[in-house]
Design goal:
Number of helices: 28
Strand order of the largest sheet: 2-3-5-4
Helix content: 40-55%
Number of strands: 9
Strand content: 5-15%
Length: 687
């Protein structure tokens, strides 16, 4: 993800959110922007840009912006997210005031936020709302009923054992199909259950103790007694079995490894002791016969996992997942215990975030397009959207030129690539049509109920797509989100309003700086359509091999160079990045900056951007500084370890240095020489 540019870009209205920075409860850092828009106060000019460009661009920012106690990571993304949170908070506090003149949207988001903020009411109600579901779980008298109970839990947003959802058909992206896939674990990745090192062993022990602590709290709330340690051991044992049956994260990056179309009649052959008919025959889900099985081996192994697990332990496991999903809406002891493990132990976060922040985020998750509608009214404008689309057009022009110049690609494959590029659609800011939440009952005094009803709405909304045409106008992120994405099945790039603000885009900044920031973000997302995953989809979003064998081999050779390069990077002592896990994002970073740089060169050649020095930097230098300063960040060691295992994105340091060391353009801009750390011995480039 990425985004930013200048006069031909976004509008001054985007500064609305940026101007609120001083009001936010974030590190008190005031950037000192030069005439060009570069944050001069972020730089550490005691370091040569050819030695460590990231430190040169971000060193002072990192020294002044330590990770806040309620965060596990602090970056320019977090900085902007916090400013957006403040805008959302103002919207929600106003909407929460009961009034006969409130709109339907204000009522939904205002009452949801009010219910979340009602700590006294949450304490008073305790776990009362969980009792009917807990009783339903305990009423199971046969493993054969597991399918029925999982279906009930799925309907209120509780996922257990495996995932069930609708998504575009791999081979016909115009239609949605049913999918089942591996799942059912609570730790971030299967490897947390399986790795034999001492750190992983200790973390599993901490997790088991956390589960026991949560069961203790539940027993106390229900005025009952049970062996919480035994229950925790049962949960860990069952989840470990699911982890052992799961495909690893790197292999799952290949879409072909997840494409296994079957019919519902095939399911009993996979898991013979599971009541598939009861699970999928929900009257609120369209009837279907075709289903994609993401990992058939997982479901084959599930038969023995269920056989080897007692009915009581299955009930315990289901209870745990209900408890885990509900923890944030329960009384404070549950919230704090949940934070102690998942926030502090796992990610190194020192303090629980203020309740208002948690409630704003919860409202965004539950009713994102209702809240987003209000956010856009305050923080985004029509001219901004038009300018962003203008920039995307410039980057697409660069991509076409890049394909033309690709000497390693045959003409036959190039023609297919042109066709795919011309089919890319662009979504900027917010949806054309807002999601309708009128069927969701939201009460200002029933937070857990609101959470369940909102989750039930989303589950039904997703599953009702099965067998129906794909709606390519639908968004996968809410408007206030500071991020962007490319969708392979829909072949579109998406930039929420939340990211189209400083430091990613600043309408007062020099065009070279904006091209280095938001321009690279746009290029990054466009390159995803041609990375190691995206290249396997055609322009219609179908999983189809449109490459000649020789071109595929050339691509893989170039990609392997990137894999080996990033394999060497270490974000924290004793941990290396996984080059294959991060390949897609690294390829997009390296490709995206080339596309934005090509736009810069056109602007200089056409005199749209003059060859002037600003703040002591040439246009080329400003471009690279604008790029690197987007990635300024600090993170806890614990968070860095989690991300190295699970995150397909490299940390900011390597997103900056890993890219520039591959670019002769950077070497020329800063007069670097062979042997300098920022000059790779073997430069890597896919696009």
């Amino acid at each position: 993800m990425d985004a930013s540019m200048q006069p031909r870009l976004l509008a001054a209205a985007l500064l609305t959110v940026f101007s609120l920075a001083a009001l936010a409860q974030v590190p008190t850092y005031e950037p000192q922007l030069g005439r060009s828009g570069i944050d001069l106060s972020a730089m550490d000019t005691n370091v040569s840009p050819c030695t460590n460009f990231y430190q040169y661009a971000c060193g002072s920012w990192r020294a002044k912006n330590l990770v806040p106690p309620d965060q596990s990571r602090w970056s320019r993304f977090n900085e902007l997210s916090e400013r957006n949170l403040l805008v959302e908070r103002k919207i929600l506090e106003k909407a929460a005031l009961a009034s006969p003149n409130r709109s339907a949207v204000d009522q939904k988001i205002g009452d949801y936020y009010a219910a979340c903020m009602d700590e006294n009411g949450i304490e008073r109600r305790g776990v009362e709302r969980l009792k009917p579901t807990l009783d339903s779980i305990q009423a199971l008298d046969s493993k054969w009923q597991l399918g029925t109970e999982l279906a009930k839990l799925k309907r209120i947003g509780v996922n257990g054992v495996f995932a069930f959802f609708a998504t575009p058909d791999f081979k016909d992206a115009s239609i949605n199909v049913a999918n089942i896939d591996q799942g059912g674990i609570s730790l971030p990745d299967r490897d947390y259950y399986l790795k034999p090192d001492q750190r992983s062993f200790d973390l599993r022990q901490n997790y088991e103790q956390h589960v026991a602590n949560m069961f203790d709290l539940l027993a106390k709330s229900l005025n009952t007694t049970w062996d919480s340690k035994a229950k925790a051991a049962a949960v860990l044992k069952f989840e470990t079995a699911l982890a052992e049956a799961s495909m690893d994260r790197v292999l799952r990056r290949d879409p072909e490894s997840r494409d296994h179309p079957m019919t519902t009649k095939d399911l009993p052959n996979l898991t013979s002791n599971f009541q598939w008919t009861a699970f999928i025959s929900d009257e609120r889900t369209p009837a279907f016969t075709k289903i994609n099985v993401g990992n058939p081996d997982f479901f084959k192994k599930l038969t023995s996992i269920i056989e080897q697990t007692s009915l009581d332990d299955l009930k315990t496991y289901l209870t745990w997942h209900l408890l885990l999903r509900s923890a944030s809406a329960l009384p404070r002891p549950f919230v704090e215990e949940n934070f102690q493990f998942f926030g502090k132990t796992l990610n190194g976060q020192q303090e629980l975030a203020p309740r208002w922040k948690r409630c704003v985020r919860a409202t965004d998750r539950a009713l994102g397009e209702a809240l987003g509608q209000k956010f856009v009214e305050v923080a985004f404008s029509g001219p901004a959207k038009a300018k962003a689309l203008e920039l995307v057009g410039e980057i697409e022009r660069s991509m076409k030129e890049d394909i033309e110049k690709a000497s390693w690609m045959s003409e036959a494959t190039k023609q297919q690539a042109y066709a795919k590029l011309s089919a890319v659609s662009n979504k900027i800011g917010y949806p054309e049509k807002w999601r309708e939440y009128s069927s969701v009952v939201i009460k200002p005094d029933d937070y857990l109920g609101d959470e369940e009803r909102a989750a039930a709405f989303e589950v039904h909304r997703n599953l009702s797509k099965i067998g129906n045409p794909v709606d390519k106008s639908e968004w996968g992120m809410t408007p206030p989100t500071v991020n962007a994405y490319y969708s392979p099945p829909q072949n579109n790039i998406n930039f929420p309003a939340g990211i189209l603000q400083p430091p990613f885009y600043n309408p007062k900044a020099d065009e070279a700086v904006n091209l280095g920031a938001i321009g690279v973000v746009v290029g990054h997302e466009l390159t995803h359509g041609f990375d190691d995953q995206g290249r396997k989809y055609d322009g219609a979003g179908n999983l189809r091999d449109w490459w000649t064998p020789a071109d595929s081999k050339n691509f893989e050779t170039r990609a392997e160079c990137v894999v080996k390069e990033y394999d060497k990077f270490s974000p924290v002592d004793g941990v290396k990045l996984k080059g294959k896990l991060t390949l897609g994002e690294n390829a997009a970073d390296n490709g995206g900056i080339h596309l934005a740089y090509m736009a810069l060169m056109r602007d200089l050649a056409d005199k749209i951007l003059p060859h002037t020095t600003l703040d002591g930097f040439t246009a080329e230098q400003r471009f690279f500084l604008g790029f690197a300063q987007v990635w300024c960040e600090n993170a806890t060691d614990a968070s860095s370890r989690v991300r190295a295992m699970t995150d397909p994105h490299s940390p900011g340091q390597f997103r900056a240095n890993g890219v520039v060391q591959n670019m002769q353009e950077f070497e020329r801009a800063f007069s670097c020489k062979d042997g300098d750390p920022m000059v790779a011995v073997q430069a890597c480039r896919v696009w």
